[in-house]
Amino acid sequence: MSTRALADLAKQARAREQGRAPLSLAPLASAFAQRQLTARKQASPDATLALHERRLQQLQASHVALDGKVQALEQKLDEAMLAVVKGFGDLAGQLRRTRRSAQINAQKQTKRLASVERTMQTKRRADGRAQAKAAQVQKVNAVVSSMQVAAYGETGSLLSTNNLLLAGNQLLWSFVVPLLQQLGFPHIKPGGLLETLSPLGSLTTSKIFLGRRQHVRFVSGLATFSPGQSSVVVPLRSRIASAMWANFKARTDVPVAITGLDAAGEKSVRGVVRDGQLLIVLLGAPSTTSIRFAWMVDTGVASG
To answer: Ramachandran region of residue 275, left (φ > 0), alpha (ψ -120 to 50) or beta?
Structure first.
């Protein structure tokens, strides 16, 4: 306690004894507190330093912890940025792959379309060639049909046996390809070998079914008598169909008509068919000049 505080306290005691003022302890308490503070400051400089060191250490530890948190946040941010960058890179790569795939698909589609176009062009060219070939075959068939009608047809009767057979034969070979396709042969295509050979097939079948039949009832020709010749033999084998040749050769009643063509042809002649040959005999004396006669033989065939 300071001297001044004691003096003040003594004054207060004397004043109280004299009844002039009450006694107060406030100066004493203030002096005591000041003394304690001064003593504490003078007596513990090491404790204050230690306290500061502890606080400094705590501050450093807090700083280290804060630095660690900041580094962790930076690392997480870096990782997030890397993930974002990687995501953008993956997206860019995916876009490149998608674009490349689209380009490849477009190229494939273009090639496919080009291939289809080439195939269609090839098919159109093939169809054009097939149509041209079919037209040519039809022309040949028309010529063949005319030949068959001239060789085996019969005039005056549209529905005669020969004419019906010729029409059926021509229709058969004109539609042989679709007919065979309907019968279960789909591998036979129009414009193929069979259609190309159809004219030959038509000729062959007409020859087989009609070629051996007699289509002409009356056969005729010319016979020439040389000077001094009294008879002429005319072979008829080439004028008679093979199917009726044997029967015709055995006949002895074949009608014959003979007409003279020259002035000297007024001579009498006689004609007869024996063993498939026409024998023309000049009656009377032989002529001194050449004489021509027209002859005609009735085969007896009423219709083809």
So the answer is: left
Distance separating alpha carbons of residues 39 and 254, to the nearest angstrom: 183
What secondary structure does DSSP assign to 242-265, as a single string?
Answer: HHHHHHHHH-S---EEEEE-SGGG
Percent of the chain with pLDDT over 70: 77
Q: Is the pLDDT of residue 205 over 60?
A: yes
Average pLDDT, the chain: 78
Question: How far, in Å, CA of 220 to CA of 151, rounded?
Answer: 16
H helices of the chain, where? 3-17, 26-43, 45-152, 161-174, 176-182, 193-196, 198-210, 242-250
Type and span of the H or E element at 241: none
What H or E segment, with its residue span, contains residue 295? strand 291-298
Rounded to an integer, what distance in angstroms lies between the CA atom of residue 59 and that of residue 231?
162
Q: Could you give the CA distance from residue 50 to residue 10 in angstroms, rounded to a whole number?
A: 42
Helix 161-174 vs helix 198-210: angle between axes, to the nearest 10 degrees? 160
**Euclidean distance between CA atoms 165 and 278, whole angstroms:** 32
Containing 281, the helix (H) or strand (E) segment is strand 277-282
Please, are residues 148 and 208 in contact by the beta-carbon 8 Å criterion? no
Give the H/E segment covering residue 304. Answer: none
pLDDT tens-digit readout, 146-157: 777 777 776 667
Contact 258, 268 (CB under 8 A): no
> Quick one: which of 57, 78, 55 has its CA closest to 70?
78
Residues 216-254 have pLDDT tens digits of 788 899 998 888 888 899 999 888 887 788 888 888 888
Q: Using one digit for the tens of pLDDT, what is the confidence trace for 252-288? A: 888 999 988 876 556 788 899 999 899 999 887 777 8
Q: What is the pTM of this model?
A: 0.41
Residue 139: CB atoms within 10 Å: 11
